[in-house]
Amino acid sequence: MNIISASRRTDIPAFFPEWFMNRLRAGSAQYMNPFSSRAVTVSLKSEDVHSIVFWTKDFRPMLRHLDELDARGYRFTVLYTITGMPKEIEPNVPVPEESIATVHFLAGRYSPRHVAWRFDPILFSDMTPPEEHEHRFHTLARKLSGATQRCIVSFVEFYGKVQRNLERVTKETGIGFRNPELVEKSALLARLAEIAAKNGMSIDSCCNEALVTDQVRRSHCIDGALLAELFPDMPHIAKSNPTRDGCGCTTSRDIGAYGTCRHNCIYCYANTSAQQVENNCARHDPCADALLPIPSTNASA
Question: Which long-range contacts (CB under 8 A, 24 or more apart) does 32-35 make?
């Protein structure tokens, strides 16, 4: 029995809901192991799926499938990213009001514990200095109050591809970006934690234990303990499987594919370029076993 992650690698609810539902109806999906490049097949039969964790910036395309998800017996939670950063940074993300309304709808249909708000990643730039992040967080937290009890935060990781994309944007727009020191990150999170607490939320730090304090908890984005509480009739999956340093996630199967998210946020670690995304999406078949064709013919369970 597996927890299904859908997905750290792309926004399945926003861009591939039909493929996802087709795979549930078929009872299995394939994905490429990013280390071996081998095709992996995972059962998506309801009796083999502990729960589904959706990662998204726009869950609206999935709303029309909720009745079917429930009728088929699938349990799920949603990690909903809402930052409100400008279009120069997040060019294709819905305006916050639309996402906030969706979070409230999901909380009303299921519960506030079924939906976590991700205010991440935090990117320091000429357009988004610390005080601007604090102001946006305050506004969003007030509007999300009562619809969620947990906020997950992180800072942009300056991986090679991310650094290159930011440098390209700087050349094109003149906007400068910087990777703040730990003390500056800690100071901002302390202020965000105070705001979150006033709005009935905890603050969890994703993949940065150095930022954990009495007010800021270590994040378990895919949280086996929470899933056990939400779905007590299912076995408790406690094994951890970190995806990178500092990750506290419970083990899961991620069925997404890199280079396919059309949000095209400039800080994204999953995309190389907007052209790569368009090329990959042109190869997508909503009726195929995998979100993108997998070159290898070797499959493993």
Answer: 32/257, 32/290, 32/292, 32/294, 32/296, 33/300, 34/258
